[in-house]
Amino acid sequence: xxxxxxxxxxxxxxxxxxxxxxxxxxxxxxxxxxxxxxxxxxxxxxxxxxxxxxxxxxxxxxxxxxxxxxxxxxxxxxxxxxxxxxxxxxxxxxxxxxxxxxxxxxxxxxxxxxxxxxxxxxxxxxxxxxxxxxxxxxxxxxxxxxxxxxxxxxxxxxxxxxxxxxxxxxxxxxxxxxxxxxxxxxxxx
Length: 189
Prior knowledge:
4 helices
C-alpha cells in the first residue's frame, strides 16, 4: 500500500462555545478529504472535548491552536493553549481527558514555553474506495424501436440512375444488358 505522505492541517481560534461546532465541521471536511470517514466521529468528539476544556478552565477568550496530522498510519489531533497548568486524568469515568483516552490509542500532554499541548492519536489506514463502475464498460443493448438492426451499406460509387420502365417484352433485354456489369463486381439494381 502506498502511504499518502504527511498531511497536516492547523487552525488558530478563540475557544468560545460557538466555535466548537464550526471546528468539528472543518475537521470532518478534512478527514473526509483524506478518506478517513470512519474516524470523523471519534476525532471530532475528542477535539471538541479538548476545546471545551480550554473554554472551561482557561476562559472563552483563550487562544488555542487545533492541529491534525496524518502520517498514513497514525492520525494525531492536538490542541495547544496558553494555560500554564497541565491537566490530569482524575478518573476513568466522566468527560474531559477520560473521554479523550477512551476515543484514542494514546494521548498525552506536554508543556511549552507559551502554555501546553494536549494530543491524542489513533491508528489509521486509508480506506480503500471501491470503484463505482466496472473497469470495462458494460455492453449495452441497442434500442430496437424504429431502428434498423444493421445500418445500410454506403455504396462506394454513386448509383446509376434507374432505367426507364420498359415494356414487358424489353425486360429480358434489360437483364442481358445488366449481366456484364454484375461480372465486374458492381451490382446494378
